[in-house]
Amino acid sequence: MYSQPSRHPDPLPAEGDRRPHASSANPATHARPRFKGWKDRTFSSLSIANKIILGYGISLGIAVLGTTTGLLVGDYYEAKARHSQQVAHEQAQLLSQLQVTVLQLRPEREFLPSIWEESRFRSARTEAFQRLNDVENLLNQIRASVELETMSSMQGFLTGFETEVDTYRSDLEAIVGGVDPDTIDATVASQVERQITGLVDSPTYLRLFRFSTELTEFVKQAEEESLQANLALDRVGRLETQIILGSMALSIAIAGLLSIYISRTITRPIKQVTAVAKEETEQGDFSLRAPVTTQDEVGVLSIALNDLIQRIADYTRELRETQTHLIQSEKMSSLGQMVAGVAHEINNPVNFIYGNLVHTRDYTENLLRLIHLFRDYYPTLNEPLKHEIEAVDLEFIEQDLPKLLDSMKMGAD
User: pTM for the whole thing?
Assistant: First the structure.
């Protein structure tokens, strides 16, 4: 639902009120938008086209960002799982190779059959020490991989194994290192045979083979870790798919909500302006004003509509004032005609009276003069005439009648 249009005091004065309208000087001052924060100011200042572009851009951006995030997270954990798988597989191979190499350390088989043959003895001695070098290299490689993976449980075992290998090397070096196959005799050969047999039965050689046997457990552990890494890799693949699908679903939901919000943001002010224009057309209420909440095309349209309403209100007020003036002028004209007619009707008898006042005065003066002459020549009056003169108050009439005629003349003038 959109908000109701705002109302202002009626700009039209009552008939006869000719004071200038206060809002006519600046019709747009009443419609300045007010915004709450920088987000509203920024979004409201965009045009409709930019708002639509922004909505689509944000929607696509969220979808791309969600998918990219899912892929990156999946790739990260996949790389981690593959690395764990590779390390576990390499450790299993190294441990197996170490075990096989240690099992090949058989001095009684290497030296006793070839003790009387110069070339075979030299070759057996070289191969024996080469195997020891291979064992040490394998131990170093395993130690490096173990240190990278921080498998502390194997560190003590490797240290002990390396110690036994060094001891075995020293013992073997002491037995066959100083033997010259070119000058060997029966005494030396018998001594070498006894020492080789003693080496095979020595605690060092037995511990070395015991360590080799214990390697089986570590090989199984490495193979188990490799298997777990494979399972983790499968889980990572499923997790990557779930993250991508979840991010896509979330992106679609957010994009839908954002689209609804942007569409309402665009259509709400349009509905408000439409409602104001419709109500203004139907009711003619010039106090209505369209709310200006944006600075886009709709905001400009709202300001223009408010200015148009204000101008129509001013024109209507001026029209009413003009109508009032015309009505008053017509009233005065009709009153003048009526007064002229009444004056004409009054002037006719007044002129008639005024025209006869002169004669009336002459006649009155003649009559009064005649009465005075009559009283001078006939001072004695009979009783009825005397009573009649007293009754009409002849003296008062003589004094008041000239005044009455003067007053009538003054009024007729």
Answer: 0.43
Mean pLDDT, rounded, for 224-235: 80
User: Could you tell me the CA-to-CA distances from 247 to 193, 279, 302, 341 in Å, in that order?
Assistant: 74, 47, 40, 97
Element (H, E) at 7: strand 6-7
Closest Cα to residue 5, out of 314, 373, 280?
A: 280
- 124 Cβ contact list (under 8 Å, min separation 6): 110, 111, 114
Burial per residue of 157-195, b for 16 or more beta-carbon CB atoms within 10 angstroms, e otherwise: bbeebbebbebbbebbeebbeebebeeeeeeeeeebeeb
Task: Collect contacts of 82-86 with beta carbons under 8 A, ≥24 apart.
Answer: 82/229, 82/233, 84/225, 84/229, 84/232, 85/226, 85/229, 85/230, 85/232, 85/233
Q: What pLDDT digit, counting tens, does each position of 174-185 carry?
A: 877 777 766 667
User: Which residue, among 246, 248, 243, has the nearest Cα to 60 in the 3D structure?
Assistant: 248
Handedness of CA 318, 322, 323, 324 (dihedral sign): positive
